[in-house]
Automatic annotation (TrEMBL):
InterPro entries: Met_Sox_Rdtase_MsrB, Met_Sox_Rdtase_MsrB_dom, Mss4-like_sf. Residues 18-142 form the MsrB domain. It catalyses: L-methionyl-[protein] + [thioredoxin]-disulfide + H2O = L-methionyl-(R)-S-oxide-[protein] + [thioredoxin]-dithiol. It comes from Nocardia aurantia. Its EC number is 1.8.4.12. PROSITE patterns: MSRB. The lineage of its organism: Bacteria, Bacillati, Actinomycetota, Actinomycetes, Mycobacteriales. It is an enzyme of class 1 (oxidoreductase). This is peptide-methionine (R)-S-oxide reductase. Transmembrane segments: none annotated. One of its GO terms (cellular component) is cytoplasm. Pfam families: SelR. GO terms for biological process: protein repair; response to oxidative stress. Keywords: Metal-binding, Oxidoreductase, Zinc. The gene is msrB.
Length: 147
């Protein structure tokens, strides 16, 4: 049964057929971004990265998160306390796997990014942890990080 809030989600700006996504993405990227899979904990390239820059959606290139909002949560995936822009992501109820979670989607192409958790006691300004798959992101280092 889908949530009533799902009907209020606007259509993605980028809409491709599954075959078009498959030609754009690797099989592992497709499994996470388009089929809501999850990469194994502690295997993603950005889990412990401290490079300054902007994290974009690997599927469409939309800006999602910034390194200034990234923190070490020690959960095995990159964690952020806030998206780069309030409208960069869409939050959707996720009742799969027998639990209630909140899925994080790219607002631009509706690709699966991960989940957001709240009230876990992290000392962040929002008390939220956007737990995001590295494979869903592409980091563009800032000019200062390149020097």
């Amino acid at each position: 049964m889908s949530s009533d809030s799902d009907t209020s989600i606007p259509a993605p700006k980028i809409q491709l057929t599954p075959q078009e996504w498959r030609t754009r993405l690797t099989p592992n990227e497709y499994a996470v971004l388009r089929e809501a899979g999850t990469e194994r904990a502690y295997t993603g390239e950005y889990t412990d990265t401290e490079t300054e820059g902007v994290y974009e959606c690997r599927a469409c290139g939309a800006e999602l998160f910034r390194s200034t909002e990234k923190f070490h949560s020690h959960c095995g995936w990159p964690s952020f306390f806030d998206p780069a822009k309030s409208d960069a992501v869409i939050l959707r109820a996720d009742d799969t796997l027998g639990m209630r979670r909140v899925e994080v989607l790219c607002a631009n192409c509706h690709s699966h990014l991960g989940h957001v958790f709240e009230g876990e006691g992290y000392a962040t300004p929002t008390d939220k942890r956007y737990c995001i798959n590295s494979i869903s992101l592409r980091l563009h280092p800032s000019d200062s990080a390149a020097h």
